[in-house]
């Protein structure tokens, strides 16, 4: 018999991880071998474990699932990733595609779709929750075919990392330590964020981070 696929599961809610693990471990061809409670921990677990598939929640502390997926694509190009999310959102869908994710699964129907999504990802096939296929994939393909730009990311990946940490309440010094950069560099990125996004202060940055799903309200 073929050994079951080894899965990393990352979600900041322990109850969600427990429920998803029950679904996956009930299947003979799937097994959860590692768990993480945030995006940074997911990256560390992927470095230290032999895994075939990473299932990443989008909204997590320290690093989002999308940020983790982009880093994992650089670190382990052959690793398959799935985004597990409560957000039925076009922008997240396009960001998931950009990050290299094989699929996008809504938590509300994970009991119905997740196993199929895992198997599709392991076959190197895309999986998008059924309700999104017609509108989202058609929109994406039409834009790609005509050369039209996909929805743009207003800030860089580094700025996104700093925005998330600012919104979580970290000081510039703490952010500098976490990202191994200088506090002066953090302040420069923070100033650029305010200018790019047309915002005035930390409170408005936090509201923006909530609106785009970098942190939960």
TrEMBL record:
Lineage summary: Bacteria, Bacillati, Actinomycetota, Actinomycetes, Kitasatosporales
Record GO biological process: phosphorelay signal transduction system; regulation of DNA-templated transcription
Span of the signal peptide: none
Record domain Response regulatory: where: 6-122
Positions carrying 4-aspartylphosphate: 57
Domain HTH luxR-type: 148-213
Organism expressing this protein natively: Streptomyces liliifuscus
InterPro entries cross-referenced by the UniProt entry: CheY-like_superfamily (IPR011006), NreC/VraR/RcsB-like_REC (IPR058245), Sig_transdc_resp-reg_C-effctor (IPR016032), Sig_transdc_resp-reg_receiver (IPR001789), Tscrpt_reg_LuxR_C (IPR000792), WalR-like (IPR039420)
Taxonomy, superkingdom: Bacteria
Keyword Glycoprotein: no
Name of the protein in its database record: Response regulator transcription factor
One MF term in the entry's GO annotations: DNA binding
Keywords: DNA-binding, Phosphoprotein, Transcription, Transcription regulation
């Amino acid at each position: 018999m073929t050994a079951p696929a080894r899965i990393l599961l990352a979600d900041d809610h322990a109850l969600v991880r427990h429920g998803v693990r029950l679904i996956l471990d009930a299947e003979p061809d799937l097994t959860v071998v590692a768990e993480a409670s945030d995006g940074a921990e997911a990256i560390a677990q992927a470095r230290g474990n032999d895994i075939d598939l990473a299932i990443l929640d989008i909204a997590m502390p320290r690093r989002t699932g999308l940020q983790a997926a982009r880093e994992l694509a650089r670190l382990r190009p052959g690793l398959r990733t799935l985004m597990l999310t409560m957000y039925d959102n076009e922008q997240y869908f396009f960001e998931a595609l950009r990050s290299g994710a094989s699929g996008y699964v809504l938590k509300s129907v994970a009991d119905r779709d997740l196993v199929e999504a895992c198997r599709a990802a392991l076959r190197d096939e895309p999986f998008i929750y059924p309700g999104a296929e017609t509108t989202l994939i058609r929109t994406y393909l039409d834009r790609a075919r005509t050369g039209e730009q996909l929805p743009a990311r207003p800030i860089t990946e580094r700025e996104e990392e700093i925005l998330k940490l600012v919104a979580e309440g970290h000081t510039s010094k703490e952010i500098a330590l976490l990202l191994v950069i200088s506090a002066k560099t953090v302040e420069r990125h923070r100033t650029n964020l305010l200018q790019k996004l047309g915002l005035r202060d930390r409170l408005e940055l936090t509201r923006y981070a909530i609106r785009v799903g970098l942190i939960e309200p």
